[in-house]
TrEMBL record:
InterPro entries: RlaP
Entry superkingdom: Bacteria
PANTHER family from the UniProt entry: NUCLEOTIDYLTRANSFERASE
Stated name of the protein: Nucleotidyltransferase
């Protein structure tokens, strides 16, 4: 028990050190680019809940320039992303608020996932609360299903039709397929936490047990570990992909006035200018 507790303390200290470094880099980005970071979250496997010990920290953020930056004839020529190389397993980059809100209006699945991340580094109340409140009326189940189906099919074709499979790729097919099941059942944005999504198949004991074992192995394995194909999981994946082979949209498009996002944009610029 003493050894386990010491391990937990060591892991907690590492997490605290990484969090401190992430916040330092966010502040450095603000100074370097003269922006205000409004929202910063974890977006990858650590947010999904199936990270490996050596998984990257996938930090994504939304930022705003001073109002005057947007009042420019050459606005369309200005860069609307901030990107940094991966250093010490921290992958950090961001979108300008104007870019983010345009993508939000088009129900961009990545941005909608960011708004639901359970790991939040920065959250400006003016931006975050309004964006999250708008999510139910903007997010399109139809667009999300097409996005997740494309993700699942691509990873299945590329990695899972073999006798030996990259362990993490199982989750890159399972998570989008379960997200589709959520969208079909509730017609609301699917949560990004894998544990919430897998509740949809908890009644399938063989599949649920196989997923439990796979998760346990993923959390102690390195990113590039390979494993033999898992029959129960493969059967579920192949059944779901076959079910969606001729998918046709059946959800009504959201009727949203872009002015609500224009107002959010103005509110943020007024606050920080």
């Amino acid at each position: 028990m003493v050894v386990i507790e010491r391990k937990r303390i060591a892991e907690r200290r590492i997490e605290e050190a990484v969090h401190t470094e992430i916040m330092r880099r966010i502040k450095a980005a603000e100074r370097e680019h003269n922006v205000k970071v409004l929202f910063a979250i974890e977006s990858g496997s650590r947010a999904w809940g199936f990270e490996s010990p050596n998984s990257d920290y996938d930090v994504r953020f939304i930022y705003a320039h001073p109002k005057e930056w947007y009042l420019a004839v050459n606005l369309d020529d200005k860069r609307d992303v901030i990107e940094y190389p991966i250093v010490d397993d921290i992958d950090i980059n961001g979108w300008d608020i104007k870019k983010a809100l345009k993508l939000f209006f088009n129900s961009n699945p990545s941005f909608i996932e960011w708004l639901q991340s359970p790991i939040v580094y920065v959250s400006d109340e003016c931006f975050t609360k309004q964006a999250q409140a708008l999510m139910p009326v903007i997010a399109s189940s139809e667009k999300a299903i097409y996005h997740y189906l494309h993700m699942a099919k691509g990873n299945y074709r590329e990695y899972l039709k073999k006798e030996v499979i990259p362990l993490k790729k199982y989750f890159y097919v399972l998570r989008p397929l379960l997200a589709i099941m959520w969208l079909e059942k509730y017609d609301t944005p699917a949560p990004i936490e894998f544990e919430k999504l897998r509740e949809l198949v908890a009644h399938n004991t063989d599949l649920d047990d196989a997923i439990t074992l796979l998760l346990a192995r993923k959390r102690v394995s390195l990113e590039k570990e390979f494993i033999p194909a898992e029959p129960a999981i493969n059967a579920f994946i192949e059944s779901e992909l076959a079910r969606h082979e001729s998918y046709r949209a059946k959800y009504q498009a959201r009727d949203v006035d872009v002015e609500v996002l224009n107002q959010l944009f103005r509110d943020v610029l007024d606050k920080y200018s």
